Amino acid sequence: LSSSAALEGKGPLKFTSGRWRPHHNWKQIPVSGVQLALYRPFNFFNVFYRQIYCIENAHGQLVRDLDFNPNKQYYLASCGDDCKVKFWDTRNVTEPVKTLEEHSHWVWNVRYNHSHDQLILTGSSDSRVILSNMVSISSEPFGHMVDDDELSDQEDQHQEEKIKEPLQDSVIATYEEHEDSVYAVEWSSADPWLFASLSYDGRLVINRVPRALKYHILL
């Protein structure tokens, strides 16, 4: 143990998860439990953290996990026992900006893709892993940007037509290889298209983002 911290908040604090915020020099840590709250150092000598904000009843029930968007500093995702995944803009935490309701039981894990933040992984006690494409609240809501000088007239017209297409937030794939509760999902740190999931029955499953989606994002 290198150091410990005392967290200040209302009433007894019960934590289920904590993640360092990848922005602001990694000096802020959001934690989840009955509430969803963000803390920052107040006294570096005593390692004391002061609460910046708190989302009361973020999920109505226990908040199981959270993750920050690596490319949009004010956005985070949370999940909980209400079977929902919610996306928040921390500049206004009165309401979530988006909500996913694809799972039928507790959602234990939510993870943003480190390179392509529209890709969201979730794992649940319903034994499923769900890959979602939340493109409308990603850092590239219109897809991969291409320099205009690199496009011919025909390609330019085609690109404009694609941009005019309505945005689609959707479930890309549902993976049902597990036979028990999925307690952890994680993206590979070396390959942005590879991810793993772990379940209560001791099963480790490794999957890839569907090739069609991969090329759609890249091209």
Automatic annotation (TrEMBL):
Report each WD repeat as a residue range: 56-92
PROSITE patterns from the UniProt entry? WD_REPEATS_1, WD_REPEATS_2, WD_REPEATS_REGION
Q: Which family does it belong to?
A: Belongs to the WD repeat EIPR1 family.
Taxonomy, superkingdom = Eukaryota
Which SMART domains does the record match to this protein? WD40
Source organism of this protein record: Brachypteracias leptosomus (short-legged ground-roller)
Q: What is this protein called?
A: EIPR1 protein
Q: Which InterPro entries match?
A: Beta-prop_EIPR1-like, EIPR1, WD40/YVTN_repeat-like_dom_sf, WD40_repeat_CS, WD40_repeat_dom_sf, WD40_rpt
- Single biological process term from Gene Ontology: protein ubiquitination
Keywords, ordered alphabetically: Repeat, WD repeat
Q: Name one Pfam family in it.
A: WD40
Which residue ranges does the record assign to the EIPR1-like beta-propeller domain? 50-131
